[in-house]
## 1
Amino acid sequence: MGYVEMLHEIPLEQLIAVIEVLQRSSDSWYYITDLTANRYIVTDKMMEKFPIDEKVTEGLGPLFAKLVYPTDLPKLREDIARCRSGEQNEHTMEYRWFDREGRIVWINCRGTMITGRDGHRFLFGRVTELGKEAKADNITGLRKEARFQYDTEELLRDRPQTINYMMRIGIDNFKEINEKEGMEAGDMVLRELADCIVETVDPKVDVYRLVTDEFMIVDAYPESDADPGEVYNEIRNKVDDTVRRKEYSCFYTVSAGIIEDGFEGKSAETILRLTEFALNEAKRNGKNQKARFDRNAYDDYLKRLDIRKLMRRDISNDFRNFEVFYQPIVSAGGYRLVGAEALLRWKCDKYGNVSPAVFIPILEESGLIIPVGRYVLWQAAQTCKKWREVLPDFHVNVNLSYVQIHKSDLMKDVNQCIAEVGIPPESLVLELTESGYIETDSRVKELFKELRSRQFDVALDDFGTGYSNMRYLQEIEAAMVKIDRSFVMQALQNEHDYNIIAHIIDMVHSLGSAVCMEGIEEEDELNKMMGIKPDMIQGYYFGRPMPASAFEETYLQTKDSP
Ligand code: C2E
Ligand code: MG
Ligand code: MG
């Protein structure tokens, strides 16, 4: 008979004495479970740490109910049942217990099954508190981000092909909940959502709490075929039910970013980044929805980040690679050159000439449009001064961005610019793109009012792209309304649209604004559009945007030039 088989002949007191001795030299806690007699025996030290009141507890059920974090109970019961039946001889599990203070503690429990002579099944083992990275989040009881990283590194290294999906879930407007309803309400929402997630997914699926208001679901058990989209929908329905049940005392919604493939060769760090991107996409698309990670969209996002970095470098290098181009604006009566629109260009070694439609929004998002806008303004003003020596009433149109209006002292910049350069205010036309919210934006209204009072002209750009509002036009007293090329195209293709535009232009005229027709490319386009009586024309037909030197050569040969 081997030593191990002798165990059952040793009186219980002696067995307890043995584990008590071992306990003295260990940070783990030792236990003996008689699975057949349903008895649990622990050391004194273990009783100090955990809510176990008796050295020998009869009946595992009530003890576990007190000791084990409820979500983990089913998994534990399954494992114990397999040990009891002889299906497995090792018990290894990481899960959560409560300590005496009611705190959640992540433990690793390992034990070996021994069958005694009388057929009793004993589990001998030890419980170890897991390291700091495994500590549960004390609001939701879930494992934290550090643990996600640790587990995921292992998963990605050992069996990436078994990953079914990872889903990052975020609470929409969590900050608002905390601010308006208080931190306690915020904590409650976190707990509720954690419960909704854990209730929805299979017990074999791991759930982590990441930063503040985000969770990560990792479904990587081999036979899993759950559809993450459906999982998300179910979680969302549960959240809706909870919010409804609580009579909307605290309203919130959740969004999700999902990644389903391409795990091979990635790090946990990368997974965090990609799921964050997908989650942000879901939020950008309006929140309360899911988004699957889209490689193309992500590459595009990375490219935009790169462009931003390159532009930032160029800006601090005295605006290297930036250049202001000028496109002629001619009068409709006689096609005489009356001015030019200043249009910004940026090129770089890596991406070549990048379209303003791409780089202007990047400058706006990053706030870089403020220094760059100033650069354009100064360039345009200096050029205008020079060209006015040849054409005294020449004016330059400069595009403004809403970001400049809201986040910089534009009035001060404009005043300072014309004073330093030495041009009259009427030589500048400041263009602002028409948009829906311009009407309700008091800052824009104030600025327009001040610009007008100081004799600057204002132009409403891209008129016809969606929000054309006559009442507003009257209010801002724009000197010029620029009709967008897309509007012109419609008019060229369709008689009905042509008539509508003709009427709109009549109305614009009756409000005292001049009309500049943009985007005329061909002679027949010009002839047809002349029928609706614009005041000015800007388009490739008369000239493309070009560098100042080319513009001078083409349009401004002075009398004394050869
Ligand atoms: P925008 O202010 O409406 O400028 C007119 C755009 O129409 C220019 O595009 C111009 O090249 C283009 N265009 C002019 N004539 C024709 C034509 O006959 N056919 C066609 N197909 N296009 C024509 P660009 O230069 O690509 O600029 C696009 C937009 O970028 C501008 O639209 C403006 O909103 C913005 N932008 C350009 N420079 C600046 C700037 O310095 N500051 C700000 N905030 N925005 C700028
Ligand atoms: Mg413009
Ligand atoms: Mg325009």
## 2
Amino acid sequence: MHQPVQMKYAPVKNYINGGFAESKGNRTLPVVSPIDGNPLSTVPMSLTADLDDAVAAAKKAFPAWSRTPIKERVQVFFRYKYLLEKNLEELAKLCSEENGKTYGEAVAEIEKSIELTEFACSLPQLVTGEVLEVSRGVECRTEHVALGVVASIVPFNFPSMVPNWTLPNAIALGNCLIMKPSEKVPLSTGRLAKLLKEAGLPDGVFNVIHGDVEIVNAICDHPGIEAVSFVGSTKVAKLVYQRATNNYKRCLALGGAKNHLLVLPDAIPGMTAQNVAASMSGCAGQRCMAASAMIGVGNIDSIIDKICEEARKIVPGENLGAVINKESQQRIERYITEAEQQGAVVLVDGRQAKVNGKENGTYVGPTVIDHVTPGMSVATEEIFGPVISIMRTNTVDEAIAIENANPYGNAASVFTQNGGMARYIIDRASAGMIGVNVGVPVPREPFSFGGWNESKFGVGDITGKSSIGFWTKLKKTTIKWNAEAGVNWMS
Ligand code: NAD
């Protein structure tokens, strides 16, 4: 007889109308900690009927919430920010457990969630409309109006931060939101739902529906949902963008990445090596902003030596977390082996990484691969692991051509002390977020986050000021009160 598996947490539930709710379906998936392979919980694969309940609750909440003045709405987020701070340790622990990242990385993720919330608190200052007397006694004015019920579909790599890219802004701007977390990391979102309730968010304004492809498709098809934001791989971003826009919904879909670093011989060696090593290995390389391909222009051998030195200081289970599951671990190792077979040289090898006492954890050590050529799969495909693939060119223009030829366009960075050369590369790199001597060039609030090319489908960015355009529509009103204004050809 099988012993029932001991779960650390109770089964995950949906969150509808201010309370946790069982799914109407009976299919569940296990939730496992990548740190040690221990079972944490189960997550329901919801049905369209569950989504219908969430949309109905959100629709019911929308009139009162959207008519609440924004200065009142953001009070909820001042309190939510305080609650994120107060519960930081617990949130970070849960995030690390379900995702596999280190506790320190999880703390940084919650701190970023706090910054995102601070931005939402500033929205009343940013969404004032415009007014102009357009002819005598006649004024035109504009105001930002909430869309209605909106949805946000998120990936596994940031269980707290990516939900907080959309949640505070969409809701503070007057919308009611349905969040679809990744089935691999469903626990953190439930905790956020509780904090929002404690912060005083009215029931129905925020709802969580768990599931996989079936529920994502149902979100794209649901007639009660006005807009869909998506963050995940390019393959799925394309599917979601097509399906949602085919149903005449507003959609912003952020995809995968292959971020290039251009390292010039005059780069400061120590700083460059530290930045490159931290960028490729942070969150076990599972960041859409991670450095993945590096192009050395001219002779940068001594910088590569230093990068290897830095990489060797990064130890799985100590300052390097786990990758999300066995499938990912095997995929990453396959890429390394394939590169080696194609003639690349593995300078630091992260394959077969083991952590004592955590034999069922899924780890890949930091990996530096040199003499990669542009046609190899490690040069062109998103690996999503702690791996840097180094290519060499003689000129900056050749390096730019390699960067430009990659289909993605999330981030690119240049390492140099030459300002003119940095400007030359900034102007020519085909990516939405550029770094100069910065390994992870994430724009901080109020600047917005978003890539180009196959890293993003749709108009505008997902965070910061640019998100206002996505989560609202403009109402334009022309007003005349006094008869002396008369009648002219325009009004
Ligand atoms: P994913 O695309 O597999 O999953 C993302 C979401 O889509 C999840 O909620 C998942 O349940 C759902 N999903 C998965 N397959 C689906 C399908 N066939 N049809 C409909 N929905 C589906 O991504 P992931 O593995 O969770 O996350 C890693 C990816 O996300 C990487 O490619 C990474 O670069 C990307 N990412 C991008 C950004 C960005 O800002 N551009 C940020 C974070 C992560």
